[in-house]
Amino acid sequence: MPLENCILSIDQGTTSSRAIVFAPDSSIVAVAQQEFPQHYPNDGWVEHDPEDIWSATFNVCEQAITQATINGAKIVGIGVTNQRETTLVWDKKSGKPIYNAIVWQDGRTAQQCKDLQKAGHLSAVQERTGLLLDPYFSATKVAWILDNVEGARQKADANQLAFGTVDSFLIWRLTGGKMHATDVTNASRTNLFNIHTLSWDEKLLEIFNVPKSMLPDVKECAADFGNTAQGLFDYSIPIAGVAGDQQAASIGQCCFNQGDIKSTYGTGCFVLLNTGEKALESKNKLLTTVAYSIKGQTHYALEGSIFIAGAAVQWLRDGLKIIESASETEALAKSIPDDHGVFLVPAFAGLGTPYWSPDARGAIFGLTRATTSAHLARAALESVCLQTSDLLKAMREDGVSPKKLRVDGGMVANSWVCQFLAGVLNVTVERPKVMETTALGAAYLAGLQLGIYQSTSELANMNQIDSCFEPEMDTTKRQKLLNGWASAIQSTLGFKA
Questions:
Q1: How high is the pLDDT of residue 200?
Q2: Are the beta carbons of 102 and 44 closer than 8 angstroms?
Q3: I need a surface site. Which of 48, 271, 304, 467 has the fewest CB within 10 A?
Q4: Model confidence, pTM
């Protein structure tokens, strides 16, 4: 029996590209994934070769389309979700990037952000964007490329260069250069976009010295982003939905109502709280961002950003080589007692919310001769949960006290992590049946645009929970952990090389 109205979801992440074909009931018809290299040319710098991003993405799309076709599926649309803030600049005529993609984790513009803050620009940036002055966001990355690639600024001033986050670059390539566009969620992470007027902001462009001619058109999340170029695939497919990865995961988790909250555990960890149609200002260094714009309705979110989550497990595997696969960490964590006393602060790319310290570096506390690989593995997993506790504490201090957290991402396949998370946070943790919520969110958006789904309410009724984890940790144990973590954080922030 043929599968009608399937959506190809492109999930372009920090370490790999994935393509997943979803049936209208959200079941997975086909999936393909390909990792690509990370480049670290200097301390604190992180880059990707844009051609690696494109080739990995194109390859997985071809594989998923072929597999889906064999399974009898008819793909009628494409949804795109992507690593946010990562910045590319390319030549409008040739389509070739003029420099590597500067990844969201990259900290090279920390001094530029400090200089802008000293010049008194922080309040203007915060008021318009809901963000901070931090190298995490795209604006200073664009300026760095223009100022450090020979001839770039002159070409930009002559309207010869295009800027985009990864979604824009993929849309450009997929449409054969016919569409230079982004959506409101990705635009809201650049530090160039006014989240209140939902448009590029002249004052911000002036502050960061970025020419407006470089910028993509901004659309709603469910919209017409063009069609794939003839000959790219067997037939041309409309691109109908786009959202940054964290907003897409929130949509995949059906967080459409004010107060809904989700946390995604991928390379980093990101908690999004839907605040409804009002953009709330945090007093505790949470970010205010666009959750989505669908059919004329815009919802905002408070966001906490943790730069290193699953990347800490990758470090155990690829850096220290004490595990061969991430799946080993669950058994290692269970093999040692709760009071093992080792804390890992994974500030490999600085610290995000609520500290915003791009100069911080990773640290391990509590080492003894008895410390083993199991201690380090457990400390890495615990660090992700403890960082999440920092985010929820900031939300509580902003007047929001969630009782339930929807989780997704590769790390939460580990039930030990989910149970520990519920204990540390003292809230119910819900894991969805479809774990690929980021890709699913992009598919939902495309489906809404194409009329496969009529409303967000219809999607919410389809949402299925796989497991609930209730808090079981006693108060004394929780407080001891949180006290030890706070001490480790303060020591890390106080360290100067």
A1: 97
A2: no
A3: 467
A4: 0.86
